[in-house]
From TrEMBL:
GO biological process: DNA repair; error-free translesion synthesis
Domain annotation ApaG: ranges: 34-159
Protein name as annotated: Polymerase delta-interacting protein 2
Quaternary structure note: Interacts with PCNA and POLD2. Interacts with SSBP1. Interacts with PRIMPOL; leading to enhance DNA polymerase activity of PRIMPOL. Interacts with POLH. Interacts with POLD1; leading to stimulate DNA polymerase activity of POLD1.
Keywords recorded for this protein, A-Z: DNA damage, DNA repair, Mitochondrion, Nucleus, Phosphoprotein, Transit peptide
Cellular component terms (Gene Ontology): mitochondrial nucleoid; nucleus
Entry keyword annotation includes Mitochondrion: yes
């Protein structure tokens, strides 16, 4: 709402302040994970998105952002991904496939970085992910780049809404 005595002249209403307070844990950046293999730097930032009930069980969702950077002058192309996803429910899933998000990006001196985001769901409130990306050099040879291991943690310390407000 507008308040001419403030600089800037706008202040958040009580409902926005209450929403921000309740959702504060989800608005914070989580850990940043980085690893470099053969001059390819992989950066991963996971975000907890929340839990939904489905068919009498809980499903926990995370989004993760990946940035691939070629720190060398040699052109390389991402060809495959290989993920290992461990859930505290005791499951270990393997995901293999061509490229990422339907693409096989080329990392060159002109375009040294590629960034994408994806999501994962687990039947447990936490887990871990790790894996490799397979790249191809111009001569046709391949090499694997490690994806740094990262934790998938749900926010168990959820705050209750301020008194008088109901969600």
């Amino acid at each position: 709402m507008y308040d001419q005595t403030k600089v800037p002249p706008f202040v958040a209403r009580d409902t926005l302040c209450a929403w921000q307070e309740k959702n504060h844990p989800w608005l914070e950046l989580s850990d940043v994970h980085r690893e470099t293999t053969e001059n390819i730097r992989v950066t991963v930032i996971p975000f907890y998105m929340g839990m939904r009930e489905a068919q009498n069980s809980h499903v926990y969702w995370w989004r993760y952002c990946i940035r691939l950077e070629n720190l060398d002058s040699e052109v390389v192309q991402l060809r495959e991904r290989h993920w290992r996803i461990f859930s505290l429910s005791g499951t270990l899933e393997t995901v293999r496939g061509r490229g990422v998000v339907g693409r096989e990006p080329v990392l060159s001196k002109e375009q040294p970085a590629f960034q994408y985001s994806s999501h994962v769901s687990l039947q447990a409130s936490s887990g871990h992910m790790w894996g490799t990306f397979r790249f191809e050099r111009p001569d046709g040879s391949h090499f694997d780049v490690r994806i740094p291991p990262f934790s998938l943690e749900s926010n168990k310390d959820e705050k209750t809404p301020p008194s008088g407000l109901h969600w």
